[in-house]
Predict the 3D structure of the following.
Amino acid sequence: MMRSVDRLHGLIALLPLHLVGPRARRSFQSLRLRRLVRHAYETVPYYRSLFDEHGLSPADIQGLEDLQCIPVSTKQDLQEAGVEARISLPYQGAKWFERRTSGATGEPMVIRCTWWEESLVSCLRLKAFWRRGWRPWRKVARVQLRVGERRAPNWIARLQQSVLRNEGFVDCLLPPAEIADRLRRMQPYLISFLPGTALEVAEHVRPDDFPGLRLVHLGGETVTPEVIESVGRSFGVPVRQGYASHEFGQIAEECPRSGLLHVLEESVLLEVLCDGRAAGPGETGRAVGTALHSLAMPFLRYRLGDLVCVGPPSCSCGWKGMSLVSVAGRESDLLVLPDGRRLHVFAVVRVFGDAWDWIGRYQVVQERNNAVRLCLRPRRPPSAEEQTGLKRRLQQVLGQGVDVELDLSGDIRREPSGKFRVCRSLVA
């Protein structure tokens, strides 16, 4: 019975809940939260132990105002507990769809969900695409890492795979020129990219290559204005970004009118914490999420590892829920300097200035706190004067106690997930 009710709530989440009033939306979220908390406590060993350790019971969580009573869990907390302790007991025999985080800062974390949950995540993503003009008969091209084909377990899931999704996949590990050729053969309505891959493919395409293309969607990595401008110019269409994670699926989508990232509150409760309190509009803090429809492997107040900036309480498009100004980057994208300062990598990126004319793909590498190496894959060979100017600006930001090196070899590593990390720090 409970599974049937939860599936019904999942279908309700596909409706345009952002159009209803705040009271109705909060009521739905509170109902989902209460059911999720009770389910996690009764069936998931990790959460039962967590609640018991802190003297909590499901009855203590009656609505959104009680959410902060639940302790925040980190990736390390969940990994130390082990996979089996995080799986709901009634779902032990389910047919799993498995994802893994990139493991950029250590061991990858295993995420398991049922085919129903995976289909719901896909439909929520397509719901966001629907607002951009996508329809089921229009092709979506997804450039991502392929880990093998998985056959859906029943005819409903197979219908969702073959008809509703209407997706074509291109392996992001292929050479950029080959990715461009495959996309030209597909002629999609919408292309979904990792930003780093999109930037590389953009050098091999022209706007008239894709007469039917209407949108490029970027997500999975931090998106800079320079990437948006370059990709949009090459493909000749608007570029929008989304905020997603392996653990939660789609979290927020960019508003085409304001550029704000609207949080998909029908599926995710997102908190932004700054020094332990809720961050206000314009403040940057740590993203903490609760997945309202993850039952096989629940996530309650999970620290996503991202720094995000909270948006204003309203949007010009009429959006009535939570928004973000931007995803500032990963918490791990920090440089530790000899004077004890912790500097986010984008403080370094902001000084590139006119060097964007020749900087292509880049990565900031810190192997010790008094040395930083900027690895570059240049669009063109920079002059000695251009290199000197960039080094001088970097030195001003990092301080005189830090050695700055420019590496033009183009040796930039991908993560196992196919992503490019902006920062690789071994001392953060």
Summary: The mean pLDDT is 83. The chain has two domains: 2-323, 334-425. The CA atoms of residues 296 and 355 lie 48 Å apart.
